[in-house]
């Protein structure tokens, strides 16, 4: 039930309102507006619209949990049913952020329990979530329907058991790629026997003993999305899954097992094989049954031949992610190369999202790929050895990314790699006018590179940099820019503490946080995290986070 | 103790040991199993890194069921007379797998693969193919020096294209635990096994995914000391091949399956001009090429067991094999020479 709102602003003297809509009507009109960007625009029109917007908003998206406080959120938006929260900087996924950094959900939950008792959905990314928090969640929100935890940490299967036990109305449980303490398999069976509401169950990572009878029962009620762990027992279930749209979590897919999937594949749009080390022939056989695939995640064990099969069988493919099976191995184990990438691009002209881990690449291949697929919105290429040039010409990979930004005008997200000079960043600054997220590692020659990006990319929101020769001049050149961005991360660059202090002083609405490495000297700012915030410096910063 | 293999075959038994005495390299065969030629297993010290750059061109004609006679495996104690034996090219000769397995492998103890031939073998040498005939000796172990023969890894030397600044950044700033500069992936097969720079958080893979991959690719002796139900990935390297592969041993239930799978994976390396997509000209094997193959090197499949010893594949029952296999290596026969001598002792110690 919505809280009743009081009329806050009487009409001012002498001015006539543009319209005499009752506020309630305006709220109704604004109700269907879902995009939070649109809602932001609406709220800026005038005070009435601001109020109408805030009363009618049911979903709030907070891209950085420290940019705003729970109090501010609950005060402004009284009728929220669904919250999306993101916490740690993205490089925390790769162990660049020490544990106990923060982003704990607990304070938010406590306030939500009083202000949003009707909360239905919670989607968290890179937050710390304890078992206590999960239990608190399960007990505090009787209407709770959907929980999604992506790349979170701090909880165990005990917490999941609490969710399964107490959330009577759960429709969606999506737990992926989290650091979970897997204590036992019992949590799944905490779902009550008569549980029928669950539609989306995603828990691909747990090795718990799964009660397959139970799982089969669950699966047979699914019409849309399914993940499973050890699928070999589910053969009969798959035979009944004609409507399957997504399939993931296959860990032990072997040649023997895969044919089990075939009957279920004709409507598949998303296939996640990124935990199953398939060979090219196995993948090819499987893909022959998946003509409607839009999104495919694989390991590089499928090699270029496997990717050729992708190009041949999946003309509707829009997203491809190729993960490395042995990223840290000292011995060279083959994987995919530029030719696989090119092969996909010839067959899948609608490709617009790629994440590609490889050990060799050429400028020419990338140019060909984007020529075939000019609609890229997300282009993330990871040449796994830092500073690696075009392996055929020995030149830097500048022209590759130049081709990307010149050709793909819709590009929103870019991750670069390989041997890169400032020229890459000149290209980015000059051409990537829709770029919102840029990830840079082991690249660039001087401050100039970073400056090009800060000057040239009007829509830049997230910039994350590691191990690049960008220093104070580059950092400070963005002074006027950072408030329009969500965040900046710079680690292992050439930034000093003094520059960070200067930045903090000049820009009070930015939080400038530094984490120092053990061995570094006092003047270096080893890890810098800068983000805009309306709630001031963090109050829960651990000792190793220096707020300037 | 009786010289192992001396008339000692028993149907369905496995394991024999090999001692080579001649330097010639040949392939081992299975079915016909007539003569055996000596093989010099003592050539271990010749580091394969030298040899590995030249890839033998073995024929692709496997599909066409080519017979190669050349390589003979002679068995017997030094000085003893070994029966001659016809052997066939095995590495790629798998046109008809049932007749010419790539790596003719042992029957398991229950005699699944009992082959028609029985070979009288003198001494404690045995051809690979003889394992098909069911000898009952224990495993043999390889010369420890064999470890020096591991295919060379890409060099860890400084690539000349390294820019000065990034180098500095890399070395000073990132927590590089093995401080060498990053490898150029295409470095030729030089000697020093690369200490690839272990940079924190690079490549950018989520810890969750890292841990999952580590779990699925662990060898069995890392998983609570016994094989779990999960996949059993082992690396397979081949002399002369520029990169390794990985296979999941659990996807095979028999030596023959493994053998044919490996053959498919590595066939492209044994044909000179073969690209990764396979050489279209496979079928046309010139006569000269045939001759090369006849007299060229053949390959044997070896594995490193839990004790770190290198053994010929095929000696033990399949289950025992996957239990103890940590790594696979397709070696040139000449390099595999030292594998035999220890086998008897080892098996004796075991039994």
Automatic annotation (TrEMBL), chain A:
Pfam families: F-box_5 (PF18511), LRR_6 (PF13516), Transp_inhibit (PF18791). Residues 19-59 form the COI1 F-box domain. Residues 1-23 are annotated as: Disordered. This is Protein TRANSPORT INHIBITOR RESPONSE 1 isoform X2. Gene3D superfamilies: 1.20.1280.50, Ribonuclease Inhibitor. PANTHER family: F-BOX/TPR REPEAT PROTEIN POF3, S-PHASE KINASE-ASSOCIATED PROTEIN 2, ISOFORM A. SMART domains: LRR_CC. SUPFAM superfamilies: RNI-like. Residues 78-124 form the Transport inhibitor response domain. InterPro entries: COI1_F-box, Leu-rich_rpt, Leu-rich_rpt_Cys-con_subtyp, LRR_dom_sf, Transp_inhibit. It comes from the Eukaryota. The lineage of its organism: Eukaryota, Viridiplantae, Streptophyta, Embryophyta, Tracheophyta.
TrEMBL record, chain B:
Residues 1-21 are annotated as: Disordered. It is found in: Nucleus. Residues 231-333 form the PB1 domain. Keywords: Auxin signaling pathway, Nucleus, Repressor, Transcription, Transcription regulation. Pfam families: AUX_IAA. SUPFAM superfamilies: CAD & PB1 domains. PANTHER family: AUXIN-RESPONSIVE PROTEIN IAA17 (PTHR31734), AUXIN-RESPONSIVE PROTEIN IAA8 (PTHR31734:SF138). Homodimers and heterodimers. Belongs to the Aux/IAA family. Aux/IAA proteins are short-lived transcriptional factors that function as repressors of early auxin response genes at low auxin concentrations. Repression is thought to result from the interaction with auxin response factors (ARFs), proteins that bind to the auxin-responsive promoter element (AuxRE). Formation of heterodimers with ARF proteins may alter their ability to modulate early auxin response genes expression. This is Auxin-responsive protein.
């Amino acid at each position: 039930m919505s809280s009743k709102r009081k009329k806050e602003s009487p009409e001012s003297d002498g001015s006539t309102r543009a319209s005499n809509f009752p506020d309630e009507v305006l709220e109704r009109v604004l109700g269907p507006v879902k995009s939070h960007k649109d809602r932001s625009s609406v709220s800026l029109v005038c005070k009435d619209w601001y109020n109408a917007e805030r009363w009618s908003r049911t979903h709030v998206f907070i891209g950085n949990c420290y940019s705003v406080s729970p109090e501010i959120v609950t005060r402004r938006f009284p009728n929220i049913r669904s919250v999306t929260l993101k916490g740690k900087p993205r490089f925390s996924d790769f162990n660049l952020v020490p544990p106990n950094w923060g982003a704990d959900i607990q304070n938010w939950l406590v306030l939500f329990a009083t202000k949003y008792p009707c909360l239905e959905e919670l989607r968290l990314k890179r937050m710390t979530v304890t078992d206590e928090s999960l239990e608190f969640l399960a007990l505090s929100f009787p209407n709770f329907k959907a929980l999604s935890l992506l790349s979170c940490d701090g909880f165990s299967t005990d917490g999941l058991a609490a969710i399964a036990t107490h959330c009577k109305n759960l429709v969606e449980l999506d737990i992926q790629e989290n650091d979970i303490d897997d204590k036992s398999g019992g949590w799944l069976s905490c779902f009550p026997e008569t549980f029928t509401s669950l539609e989306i169950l995603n828990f691909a990572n747990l090795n718990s003993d799964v009660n397959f009878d139970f799982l089969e029962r669950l699966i047979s009620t699914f019409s849309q999305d399914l993940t499973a762990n050890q699928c070999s027992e589910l053969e009969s279930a798959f035979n009944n899954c004609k409507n399957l749209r997504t399939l993931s979590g296959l860990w032990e897919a072997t040649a023997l097992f895969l044919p089990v999937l075939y009957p279920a594949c004709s409507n598949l749009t998303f296939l996640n094989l990124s935990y199953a080390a398939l060979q090219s022939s196995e993948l090819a056989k499987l893909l022959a049954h998946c003509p409607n695939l839009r999104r495919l995640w694989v390991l590089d064990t499928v090699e270029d031949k496997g990717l050729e099969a992708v190009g041949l069988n999946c003309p509707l493919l829009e997203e491809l992610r190729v993960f490395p099976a042995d990223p840290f191995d000292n011995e060279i184990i083959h994987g995919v190369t530029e030719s696989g990438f090119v092969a996909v691009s010839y067959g899948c002209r609608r490709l617009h999202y790629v994440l590609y881990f490889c050990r060799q690449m050429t400028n020419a291949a990338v140019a060909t790929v984007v020529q075939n697929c000019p609609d890229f919105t997300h282009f993330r290429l990871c040449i796994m050895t830092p500073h690696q040039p075009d392996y055929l010409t020995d030149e830097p990979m500048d022209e590759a990314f130049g081709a990307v930004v010149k050709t793909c005008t819709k590009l929103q997200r870019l991750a670069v790699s390989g041997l890169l000079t400032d020229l890459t960043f000149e290209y980015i600054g000059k051409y990537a006018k829709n770029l919102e997220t840029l990830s840079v590692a082991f690249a660039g020659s001087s401050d100039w590179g970073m400056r090009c990006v800060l000057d040239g990319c009007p829509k830049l929101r997230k910039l994350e940099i590691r191990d690049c020769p960008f220093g104070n001049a580059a950092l400070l050149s963005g002074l006027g820019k950072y408030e329009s961005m969500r965040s900046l991360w710079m680690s292992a660059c050439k930034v000093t503490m003094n520059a960070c202090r200067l930045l903090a002083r000049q820009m009070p609405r930015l939080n400038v946080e530094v984490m120092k490495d053990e061995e570094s000297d006092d003047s270096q700012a080893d890890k810098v995290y800068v983000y805009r915030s309306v709630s001031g410096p963090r109050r829960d910063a651990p000792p190793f986070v220096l707020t300037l | 103790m009786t010289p192992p293999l001396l008339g000692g075959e028993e149907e369905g038994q496995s394991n024999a040991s090999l001692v080579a005495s001649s330097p010639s390299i040949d392939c081992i065969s299975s079915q016909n199993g007539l003569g055996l030629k000596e093989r010099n297993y003592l050539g271990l010290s010749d580091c394969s890194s030298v040899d590995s750059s030249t890839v033998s061109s073995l024929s692709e004609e496997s599909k066409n069921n080519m017979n190669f006679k050349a390589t003979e495996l002679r068995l017997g104690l030094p000085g003893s007379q070994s029966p001659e034996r016809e052997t066939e090219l095995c590495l790629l000769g798998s046109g008809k797998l049932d007749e010419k397995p790539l790596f003719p492998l042992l029957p398991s103890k229950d005699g699944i693969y009992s082959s028609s031939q029985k070979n009288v073998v003198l001494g404690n040498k045995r051809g690979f193919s003889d394992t098909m005939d069911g000898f009952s000796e224990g495993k043999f172990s390889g010369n420890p020096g064999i470890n020096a023969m591991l295919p060379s890894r890409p060099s860890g030397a400084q690539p000349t294209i390294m820019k000065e600044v990034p180098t500095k950044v890399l070395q000073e700033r990132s927590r590089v635990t093995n401080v060498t500069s990053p490898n150029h992936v295409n470095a030729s097969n030089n000697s020093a096994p690369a200490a690839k720079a272990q940079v924190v958080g690079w490549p950018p893979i989520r810890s969750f995914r890292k841990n999952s991959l580590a779990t699925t690719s662990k060898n069995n002796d890392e998983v609570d000391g016994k094989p779990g139900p999960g996949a059993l990935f082992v690396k397979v390297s081949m002399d002369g091949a520029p990169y390794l592969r990985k296979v999941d041993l659990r996807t095979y239930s028999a030596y023959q399956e493994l053998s044919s799978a490996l053959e498919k994976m590595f066939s492209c390396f044994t044909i000179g001009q073969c690209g990764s997509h396979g050489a279209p000209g496979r079928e046309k094997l010139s006569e000269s090429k045939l001759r090369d193959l006849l007299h060229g090197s053949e390959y044997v499949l070896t594995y490193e067991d839990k004790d770190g010893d290198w053994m010929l594949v095929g000696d033990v029952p399949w289950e025992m094999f996957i239990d103890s296999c940590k790594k696979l290596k397709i070696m040139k026969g000449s390099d595999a020479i030292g594998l035999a001598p220890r086998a008897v002792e080892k098996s004796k110690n075991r039994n």
